[in-house]
Design goal:
Elements lengths: L1 H17 L3 H7 L2 H10 L3 E5 L2 E6 L7 E4 L4 E2 L13 E4 L3 E2 L15 E3 L25 E3 L6 E3 L14 E5 L2 E3 L14 E5 L25 E3 L21 E3 L22 E3 L6 E2 L13 E3 L4 E4 L13 E3 L4 E2 L15 E3 L6 E3 L9 E3 L4 E4 L11 E3 L4 E4 L13 E3 L4 E5 L2 H4 L7 E3 L4 E5 L12 E3 L4 E4 L21 E3 L44
Parallel strand pairs: 3-5, 4-6, 5-7, 7-8, 8-10, 9-11, 10-12, 12-13, 13-14, 14-15, 15-17, 16-18, 17-19, 18-20, 19-21, 21-23, 22-24, 23-25, 24-26, 25-27, 26-28, 27-29, 28-30, 29-31, 30-32, 31-33
Antiparallel strand pairs: 1-2, 2-3
């Protein structure tokens, strides 16, 4: 049929192509170009700058077709004549319209790739039911397309038991995952779900227990869906899994202890933005290969189990915005690779352990932590956020040794003593410094005038007694130098400080607030002795 079709239209196709520039020919993906590729019986490449269509063939056939970025228009129904085609890759183009049902004729197809890392393809509509005939597919990739389907899951996605790569990130299938997904036992890569935070989008229903049959699966990403129910315990049987990404997927229930069975393979576990509850399973300590563990914004309660400190591969641990209680386990110091620790927005009490590892980023704001800021914590840190706690004692002078510190939010605590001159000295790279609503006293060090990197400096509601004339050196806060709109230098709420300001002081927030009442006194130091590990 293909040969007859070509024979009848070859003259017209040739005449049409003769009127086109190579670039126009390539970008329009005309039916004429497809037919010519079939007719010539030799490799045909239509080039136009960096855009091309390439068809690898033997006489009378086209077995593999690919194209670079830049193609436009709709997908022609004539694609269906290439019944011996094994590969069709039209990535990073600008196609619109729907998928032609004629794709279902390509029963020899093993690779169908319409993905777009550039987000340029804009195919819409449903998956044609005829594509269920593509039973030898190993790769099916429609990443960042905007396909959709309501009520039933496209069976074309699960019709080939040879499938190894299935990626429909960006498509909205408003249906539950079918149980026969578990029949794809060769699957190694799975991405399903929309690419936006819109309401009423994404997969529904529960994650089927049959997912545990996918023992070859290496990568699973199903974020931004609208699931119901818990993570099935059968995930513990997916022993090849290296990435489990289920962020913002409306999941409830407890984290199954069976996740600990993935310790030899799992590198990333990201469950943030759900409604998971219950305690952290002690089995999480078995995840010796996991480097990222993100549980931010859930309802996890109880204490942080000391067993977690045996997950020796962790570089990032995010437990922020949960309902954790008790203290920070000092055995976290055993996590020698840990660089980022986030426990903000919980109900943690006690001191900050001095035994914490050499963190780069420590975020523990909005808890009820007491004691001082351990000097051992300052080390190589670039970000320190401990605002809204009950920390006492002075600001460690060791801050001045760490010239890599970029952000320090120490506000709304019970800190006392002067602002260390070491913190204000030259060579320091601080961008954000907030010590508001403490009991910091004495004058601001004169070295502060050399801090040209500061873009946010908040001293409000302390007991600051004076500003040096060198403060005029902070010219980045002058109105004519404010570029982003969030540069602020605030000193209000310090008794008497506004009575005798140095000339040309570049203050962006005035002295209208009354002075605060001094906070209750308390000792500093931070971090007690660590009992023997469990």
């Amino acid at each position: 049929v293909g040969a007859l079709l070509v024979g009848a239209r070859f003259q017209a196709a040739t005449a049409l192509m003769a009127t086109m520039t190579p670039r126009t020919m390539a970008m329009l993906l005309p039916t004429a170009a497809l037919l010519l590729a079939l007719e010539t019986g030799s490799a045909t490449t239509l080039t136009g700058d960096s855009d091309y269509i390439s068809c690898e063939n033997s006489p009378g056939t086209c077995t593999s077709m690919s194209a670079s970025s830049g193609l436009t228009g709709t997908l022609p129904t004539e694609l269906g004549i290439f019944t011996l085609m094994r590969g069709l890759a039209l990535r990073n183009s600008f196609f619109t319209g729907t998928l032609p049902s004629e794709l279902g004729r390509l029963t020899a197809l093993s690779n169908l790739d319409m993905s777009s890392n550039l987000g340029t393809n804009r195919l819409t509509g449903t998956i044609p039911t005829e594509m269920a005939r593509l039973t030898v597919l190993t790769n099916l990739d429609f990443r960042t397309q905007t396909l959709s389907q309501q009520g039933s899951f496209p069976q074309a996605l699960v019709s080939s038991t040879r499938l190894q790569h299935l990626d429909f990130l960006g498509s909205d299938f408003r249906a539950s995952i079918p149980t026969n997904l578990g029949a794809l036992t060769s699957l190694t890569y799975l991405e399903l779900g929309p690419n936006t935070f819109d309401d009423d989008t994404g997969l529904t229903g529960s994650i089927p227990t049959h997912l545990g049959l996918l023992t070859a699966l290496i990568y699973m990403q199903m974020r931004l869906n609208d699931f119901s129910g818990a993570i099935p315990t059968e995930v513990g049987e997916m022993t090849s899994l290296t990435q489990m990404l289920l962020q913002f997927a409306s999941l409830t229930g407890a984290i199954p202890s069976e996740v600990g069975s993935l310790g030899a393979s799992l590198r990333g576990l990201e469950l943030n933005g759900n409604s998971l509850a219950g305690p952290l399973p002690t089995e999480m300590g078995h995840l010796s290969s996991t480097t990222r563990f993100d549980l931010n914004t859930n309802q996890i309660g109880g204490s942080i189990p000391s067993e977690l400190c045996t997950a020796s591969g962790l570089t990032m641990l995010n437990l922020g915005a949960n309902a954790l209680t008790a203290t920070l386990p000092c055995h976290l110091g055993a996590l020698s690779l840990l660089g980022t620790l986030n426990v903000e927005d919980n109900s943690l009490v006690g001191t900050i352990p001095s035994q914490l590892p050499m963190l780069k980023d420590f975020t523990a704001s909005n808890n009820a932590l007491t004691g001082g800021i351990p000097t051992s914590l300052v080390g190589d840190m670039t970000v320190l956020r401990v605002a809204n706690n009950r920390l006492t004692g002075p600001i460690p002078t060791e801050f001045g040794v760490n010239h890599g510190m970029r952000t320090a939010f120490l506000d709304n605590n019970l800190l006392t003593g002067p602002m260390p001159s070491e913190l204000a000295g030259p060579g320091h790279g601080l961008f954000f410094l907030a010590i508001a609503s403490n009991a910091i006293s004495g004058p601001i060090p004169s070295e502060i005038g050399q801090r040209s990197t500061l873009t946010f400096f908040d001293l409000t509601n302390n007991q600051i007694s004076g500003l040096p004339t060198e403060i005029a050196g902070l010219t980045q806060f002058l109105p004519e130098n404010i570029f982003f709109g969030d540069e602020e230098f605030k000193i209000g709420g310090n008794a008497g400080i506004c009575d005798d300001l140095p000339p040309d002081t570049p203050i962006t927030s005035g002295c209208e607030s009354p002075p605060p009442s001094p906070p209750p006194s308390g000792g500093g130091g931070g971090g007690g002795a660590c009992p023997p590990p469990p």
